[in-house]
Amino acid sequence: MEIAQPHIETRLAGRPDAADLFRQPEKAVGIVNAALSEGNTSCMFVTMLVATLDLQTRQLVYVRAGHIPPFHRNGNGTVGRLLSAGGPPLGLMEDAVYRTDTVTLALGDRVLIVTDGFTEAHDPSDALYGEAKVESFLAGVAAAEIEPVPRLVRDVRAFEAGRPAFDDMAAILLSLAPGQS
Predict the structure, then answer these.
(1) What is the reported pTM?
(2) Taking the CB of residue 81, how many other CB atoms lie within 10 A of it?
């Protein structure tokens, strides 16, 4: 069943404080959550990650709403996770509180954000692709590789071995090239 929501994007974009909302993404997420929670008797939910990057300071401010923690590869090749910040998925609790975190990125860092369509993809024996394979993929991305995400998609599709996709897949890879400032 689809829940009709009264133009959530208008609730954000049409506000006089719209620019400030994206400097404080927890507020934007809170507004979207309140709209999705209203009248949601079927308990449908959405996960979301909102992040803003200040290119001058290289500070990434982010908030997760039930979303998979992003993968962070530093310039030395070590992969970790952006685990803090967030709250529950959107639509479940109208008064949920969302918190942001800030990480300062260095030149050469990469941040990979994926949906659970990657991590929960199944092979013919019902094994999951998993977060470890995504982490391994990011660790192996060569510095000169310009568009690695299609390679990750191909790897997941090969893992599924022709089975229907478990869920939709979306990914964003943010790369701070070492030669830029």
Answers:
(1) 0.85
(2) 12
